[in-house]
Amino acid sequence: GGLLRPQRNAHRELLDTSGLWRFQLDPREEGEAAGWSRALPAPRPIAVPCSWNDLFDDAKDHLGLAWYQTELWVPAAWREGRRVFLRVGSANYAAKVWVNGTLVAEHFGGHLPFEAEVTGALAWDRPNTIAIAVENKQLLGRVPPGPGPAGGGVAGIVGGYPATTYDFFPYAGLHRPVLLHAVPAATHIEDVTATTRIEGRDGVVDVTVAAAGGYAGRGRVRLGELEADLAFRAGTAQATLRIPSARFWGPRDPHLYRLDVTLTDGQGRGTDSYALDIGIRTVEVRGDRLLLNGEPVALRGFGKHEDFPLHGRGLDLAMWVRDYELLRWAGANSYRTTHYPYAEEAMELADRLGVLVINEIPAVGLNFEDPEEATAQRLDQALLQLRELVARDKNHPSTIMWCVANEPLGGPPLGGQPVPRAVEAGMRFFRRLYDETRRLDATRPVTLVGVQGGVLDWHGIFDVVCVNRYFGWYTQPGRLDEAARVLEDDLDGLHRRFGKPVIVTEFGTDTLPGVHAAPPEMWSEEYQVEYLRRYLDAAARRPFVAGMHVWNFADFKTGQGTARAGGMNHKGVFTRDRRPKMAAHFLRSRWAGT
Ligand code: E9O
């Protein structure tokens, strides 16, 4: 099946369990044997969705197992002619789900939804107990991996407690809503895939619909005045709609068309339906240019995080609405979902507001010097994450590119020599990920984000060369003019070697708000501005540079370490509570022209 976001309509029901749940840490991992899936012995209240870390002192650095539990009545109307599914939006990292003591689902990997049918496990004469055990160990074979013998990723440079292979804080818990949803039992729409093309001034939409149980009946798709019949065979049907003089989706005009899919009975009456907002647009790489609707496009924006005090990585709609407002304020048109998929609501907002998203799986901190066995396990995890991400986000016009990894290493970090065996292992790994992504979705470019001083060969596999560069911070500290020259040579070298569009997906400096220095010194607001200015100038002179993403949109929480004052990465142009540093005003003047 697909991973359609549940919705409520004449045929479908939805129940959001968000609110106060019960919570208990299980450091000795005794809960499963002791029947905690039915009742927790010593629970305390917790908010769902939310990370557990900022709520209780003893949960702050907890990377082990913890239990969530709630009770709820399922509406009696769902009893007849319905199939009921339970959908977990994001449980970081591993999760097991029980309904009334029956195990219904197990899932690995945070940030992506999973669901299980629970129809047979439900009670109708009493409240149902839902229990979810979540565990966030940093293990070698996971994605992101735990620290290995090779020392992990960039976290190897910045150190930190708890130990991770990345610098953002290892927040854990039920990060997105847990939903119950009901669909018609006879058959229902399991998946819809809409891809779009542009032919002259027309927009062409190819729609593929999957319906449960090998459905062989009929249906229809409607888009405004346009309508097409669906004739299902073995559970799938296709239709093509052509919109004359269409409005093409993009940052200037993020126009969405409503696509209605309906299954129909013998009399043409609807038996199930699903609605999707789609944008008609194309993304392609031609030579060294990135094209949106056939025109070169330059991405202006940031790497981000889902990160906010108290909520951690828990869904925070207020944060999202504010962040999109600040993106607009700064004149940005784009961001990358560093370093994991963001909430579905965030993707929906990007569609509506015309923001171009590089959509990344949680593959950060990979080191191909780690044992082969770990790499093999990571490949399976990454492939699963790719399938889930593409299934979830394939219909979002805002997703313009998939990214399969951030800053993989093929040797020691900080300028160490690549290790040939590790480079080879990475080649095989990324070839697989590239091919699989293209197989899942042939309509979007695929990229890999490389680290400064990292393995260049891997970029050759991908459509766009994305690089993170910190000349003037991690190297050439305090020497901005020298750093700018190194950057320019580096960009030209990448262009000569690959002849593809280049995006600088990270560049930035840690900056403490209120620290000033003339002439600019590291950690001061002036230094951040002058550093960014040089990078943007270098890009502006190079038409093959298809995007500049500042690291980071806002300061964000990290583990504890000598390079992270106050437990934060301070490279934000906004503070963690979204106050602008000087750099935010500078970007606004560059990007929004104000
Ligand atoms: C990943 C991001 O999550 N990139 C890091 C960011 C940072 O601020 C982190 O927050 O540390 C930068 C990695 C830079 C490595 C530079 C190595 C230079 C070697 C020659």
Helix content range of the residues, please?
10-25%
Mean pLDDT level: 96
Assembly state of the chains shown: single chain
Number of helices: 8
| Main sheet characteristics | 8 strands, parallel, barrel
Shape: globular
Distance between the termini: 48 Å
Which cofactor or ligand species appear? ligand E9O
Structure class: alpha+beta
Explain what this protein looks like in three dimensions.
With 594 residues, the protein is α+β, with helices and mostly antiparallel strands. 20% of the residues lie in helices and 30% in strands. The protein contains eight helices and 32 strands. Helix 4 runs parallel beside helix 5 and helix 6 packs parallel to helix 7 (525-540). The structure holds ligand E9O. The site of ligand E9O has 19 residues, from loops.
Structure keywords:
single chain, 32 strands, 20% helix, globular, 8 helices, binds ligand E9O, 594 residues, eight-stranded parallel β-barrel, six-stranded antiparallel sheet, alpha+beta
Blueprint of the fold:
Blueprint: E1 13-16, E2 19-25, E3 44-48, E4 65-72, E5 82-88, E6 91-92, E7 94-99, E8 102-108, E9 114-117, E10 128-135, H1 155-158, E11 173-174, E12 178-184, E13 189-199, E14 202-211, E15 218-223, E16 226-231, E17 236-243, E18 257-264, E19 270-278, E20 283-286, E21 289-292, E22 295-296, E23 299-303, H2 317-330, E24 334-336, H3 344-353, E25 356-360, H4 372-393, E26 399-406, H5 420-440, E27 446-450, E28 464-468, H6 480-498, E29 502-506, H7 525-540, E30 545-550, E31 556-557, E32 568-569, H8 582-592
Parallel strand pairs: 23-24, 23-30, 24-25, 25-26, 26-27, 27-28, 28-29, 29-30
Antiparallel strand pairs: 1-12, 2-3, 2-4, 4-10, 5-9, 5-12, 6-11, 7-8, 7-10, 13-14, 14-17, 15-16, 15-18, 18-19, 20-21, 21-22, 31-32
This protein binds ligand E9O.
Ligand E9O binds at residues 154, 158, 166-167, 339, 407, 414-415, 451-453, 468, 470, 474-475, 506, 551, 569, 571.
